[in-house]
Amino acid sequence: MILGMGFLGLSFMGLQAEEPEAVEAVEKDFQAYMSSLDSMINVWHVRPKMEPLVLDSINERAEQLIEELPDSVYIARLAAISSPMQFTFNSQVKSYIRLYTQRRRDQVENMLGLSHYYFPIFEEALDAAGLPHELKYLPVIESALNPRALSRAGASGIWQFMYHTGKRYGLEVDSYVDERRDPVQASRAAAAFLSDLYEIYGDWQLVIAAYNCGPGNVNKAIRRSGGKRDFWEIYYRLPRETRGYVPAFIAATYAFTYAREHGLHARPVNLPVATDTIMVHQPLHFEQVAEVLKLPLEHLRELNPQYRRDLVPAKNRPYPLRLSFEQSTAFAGLEDSIYAHRRLQFFPDNQLAAPAAASSHPVVAPSGTAAIHYTVKSGDVVGLIAEWFNVRASDLRYWNNINRNIIRVGQKLVVYVPQAQEAHYRAVAQRHGSRQAAAATAAHATAAPEVEGEYVYYTVRSGDNLWTIARQFPGVSNDDIMAWNNITDARKLKPGQRLRIKSGN
User: Fold this and answer.
1) Which of 109, 134, 142, 179 is the catalytic position?
2) Catalytic residue list contains 454
3) Are residues 336 and 400 in the same domain?
4) pLDDT (tens digit, 9 = 90+) per residue, 314-341?
5) Please, which residues bridge with residue 455 across strands?
6) Taking the complete model, does pTM exceed 0.85, yes or no?
């Protein structure tokens, strides 16, 4: 929807008829926004296809070749956007449209690429709140779709929440997590905030202005203008950074809606098309996931920008970890291995941070004893280990600072045995260690493929998933295995299940 031509003429003329000082102020607002856009667009997960200098050169030539459109075209196109929001056209809006479609084409194409990942997230939250979907363009002017954007005032994330506003709308912000940087949670909070602002003003342009500078500043501008409740009539009463905010929003809506008409095309970015969420129920470091699944660490940071220290602090409640669909399937199959990988290094005593030295008591070897070292294997428990070495479980816990009988695979335990029986208990440690190794070898042997005719038969073992199995057979994909075995749910593989795979595929 667009305002009538009479109002368009008045608003266009009215803003141009201001004093020279006001015109100069508008130009300063515009230049300040351009500087902010240059800063925000430096998105860390964009994959550039050409060198920046080449892009600048190409865009300068493109700007010279772009034919200047008459105002009537902009007016007609804005009017054709189906939305309950008003898209006014005037000199300010035109300046921002030219900024997006001519002067900053490379940056807009980067944001077009990012929009394929982020816009569905925004639209889902806005739709759930019953809000216009065009509000998805707010993060374009707030953060240039950069979830790690941080303003000079301290606003953070893709929707640029201030600390107290974020907390008021339920976003967790602490030493480990900043949900202002979580596109999903921040979008839900933004939708709630925008709904509350619309209850106050009942006008989307005032809502957008209040989102940027706060209801207090908008209310002050309304009072100083004699109670007028139209954005363009309180324009010069608003803070300078907010004056360009509504024009920039209208221009961003126009540029994204009519990108193709202006020869603007999305650039590829390092974000997957389909993602899934794993609920993590114990502390987990990104490096554990990256090393077991053989993923770049930066890839996990891109999909989970809310975690400040590369760490999911799931100690007292579960937290989400977002992965590509294929990676989430692999995670589900290797979950135990991922949690166990280098666990003592990242989470000593299952704590998020290493406990202070004073918290662990010094252990003095009992007189007349020898120290035997045993490495915890899968299936071991404190009581069973104590029984093997004929010691009390309480002593084993005391010697190794074990709390609540929690031990982990790979953990090294010290056991004090009578000196006269040292050789015997060293053999005990070796025997139980060998037992575990033999069991693992046997499990692996049973999983060796069997060949029958045109098919190879593979026996599923613990920790397997379709992705890890397919990697063992060149040219075979997850979908191939599902088709050959009539599998409809990739997550329902069971140890011992036999899969047939075409040989020589």
Assistant:
1) 142
2) no
3) no
4) 988 899 999 999 999 999 999 999 999 9
5) 452, 502
6) no
